[in-house]
Amino acid sequence: MQPSQSVIILLLVANLVATVWFGLNERTAPVQTQAEKIAEHELPLFIDSKVRVHIYNEFVKAFNAGDNDALYDMFGPAAKAQFTRESAETEFQRLTKIFNSVESGAFTHSQLAGTEGNTSFYVLHYAVKFPEESEFGTSGTLKVTIAIQGSEYQIYGIMINAGSA
Question: What does pTM read for this prediction?
């Protein structure tokens, strides 16, 4: 056998071994079920319906009363480090002028926004109804972003949108 034939045979055997090796490794990788994928994105159990309703009620009570201090105090320390009480007050006054108040609402779903280190960020979505005086219609969405570390959470952001989002 010539040396070139030996090299070709060696390469063919190496290719066959690599194909078998990678094929076996792909098959042994754990397959994640749909339920496992969903569970990965679910809110932690301690953010139950009572907590979600409490967050909503606290916001609506302060927003409808025009209590900008209470609205600012809803935010956790990490969020408060990003903006001043005065800038939050200006923004809440603008939102009150646009939407007037929140008449009713309910939690619809949550969304995993991302993770950074040991912190997971979720957005809580609430369908809300505004009064006729609202400049942008009578329905919308309240989105409250929470940051979760271990068994604790803090409110990281609040946004109101007109229409459904």
Answer: 0.75
